[in-house]
C-alpha cells in the first residue's frame, strides 16, 4: 500500500496537477493539506474522482487551511472522520482520521507560527496535543502524517537560523519528543543525506537551486515500523510550492 501526502496550496489552483497526479501515480491513499476552499467551491471532478472515496475538512474561513483525504474504494476503510475528540485538533479544518484494517492514519496540517507570537503559541499548543495523541497511541499501528511546518534538523533545510519559525529550538524539541515516544521518521529510515526537501521558496519555483525545507512527514509508530517498506519524496511533481511525499507499507 502506498500512501501520499501533499500540501497543494489551494486545491482549486492545483486541480489539473492533482488530477494528473492521481492518474499517473494511482495512490492507494492521498492526504492533502491547505485546500483553501470549502467543498462547495470545488469542481465536480475533484469531488467525484473515479475509484476513490474522499472526505473534506474545511476551515470555515474562505481561502484558508483545510484538509482532505482520498482513498481507493477497494480498501477496507472502516472509519474516516474529522472528529478527533479534541477541540484544538479539530479547529481550522487541520485534521482527518482514517482507519483501515488494523492501523490508523492521521492527516495533520500543523499551523505555521511565523505570522505572530500568538500564532506561534497556538502552534506549540497544537504540538502538545499531537504529542499527547502519540503517547496514547504509541503501542498501536499508527501513521501520523502531513505538513508539520517544521524542519527537524539542519539536514532538513537548505539554510536556516534557530530564530526562524519552522526551525525554532522548541519546535525541533517537539519533534525529538515525538521520536522519543517510539515514532519513526519514515523518510530518514531510508535516506540520511542532506538536500531532500518537500517545500521550495517561491523564488525557486522550478526547484533548480534546491533552496528548500523538508516540512512534510510520515511518522510511523514502533509496532508499524517493520511493515514500512520504503519512503520518499516526489520532487518531480509540480503544481504547488510543496511536492508530494510517500510511504509504502506492506499489506
TrEMBL record:
UniProt-recorded Gene Ontology molecular function terms: DNA-(apurinic or apyrimidinic site) endonuclease activity; double-stranded DNA 3'-5' DNA exonuclease activity; metal ion binding; phosphoric diester hydrolase activity
Pfam families found in the cross-reference section: Exo_endo_phos
Gene: xth
Domain of life of the organism encoding this protein: Bacteria
InterPro entries in alphabetical order: AP_endonuc_1 (IPR004808), Endo/exonu/phosph_ase_sf (IPR036691), Endo/exonuclease/phosphatase (IPR005135)
Name of the protein: Exodeoxyribonuclease III
Endonuclease/exonuclease/phosphatase domain segment(s): 5-242
Active-site residue list: 109, 147, 242
Keyword entries, A-Z: Hydrolase, Magnesium, Manganese, Metal-binding
Amino acid at each position: 500500500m502506498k500512501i501520499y501526502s501533499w500540501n497543494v496550496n489551494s486545491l482549486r489552483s492545483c486541480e489539473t496537477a492533482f488530477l494528473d497526479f492521481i492518474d499517473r501515480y494511482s495512490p492507494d491513499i492521498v492526504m492533502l493539506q491547505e485546500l483553501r476552499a470549502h467543498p462547495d467551491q470545488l469542481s465536480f471532478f475533484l469531488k467525484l474522482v473515479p475509484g476513490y472515496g474522499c472526505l473534506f475538512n474545511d476551515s470555515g474561513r474562505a481561502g484558508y487551511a483545510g484538509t482532505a483525504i482520498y482513498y481507493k474504494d477497494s480498501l477496507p476503510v472502516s472509519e474516516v472522520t474529522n472528529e478527533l475528540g479534541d477541540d484544538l485538533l479539530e479547529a481550522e479544518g487541520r485534521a482527518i482520521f482514517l482507519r483501515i484494517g488494523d492501523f490508523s492514519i492521521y492527516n495533520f496540517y500543523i499551523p505555521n507560527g511565523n505570522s505572530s507570537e500568538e500564532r506561534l503559541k497556538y502552534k506549540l499548543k497544537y504540538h502538545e496535543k499531537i504529542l499527547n495523541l502519540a503517547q496514547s497511541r504509541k503501542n498501536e499501528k499508527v501513521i501520523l502524517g502531513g505538513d508539520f511546518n517544521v524542519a527537524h534538523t539542519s539536514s532538513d533545510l537548505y539554510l536556516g537560523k534557530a530564530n526562524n519559525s519552522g526551525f525554532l529550538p522548541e519546535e525541533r524539541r517537539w519533534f525529538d519528543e515525538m521520536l522519543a515516544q517510539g515514532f519513526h521518521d519514515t523518510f530518514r529510515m531510508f535516506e540520511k543525506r542532506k538536500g531532500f526537501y518537500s517545500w521550495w521558496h517561491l523564488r525557486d519555483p522550478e526547484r533548480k537551486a534546491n533552496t528548500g525545507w523538508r516540512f512534510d512527514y510520515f511518522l510511523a509508530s514502533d509496532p508499524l515500523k517493520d511493515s514500512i517498506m520504503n519512503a520518499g519524496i516526489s520532487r518531480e511533481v509540480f503544481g504547488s510550492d510543496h511536492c508530494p511525499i510517500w510511504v509504502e507499507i506492506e499489506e
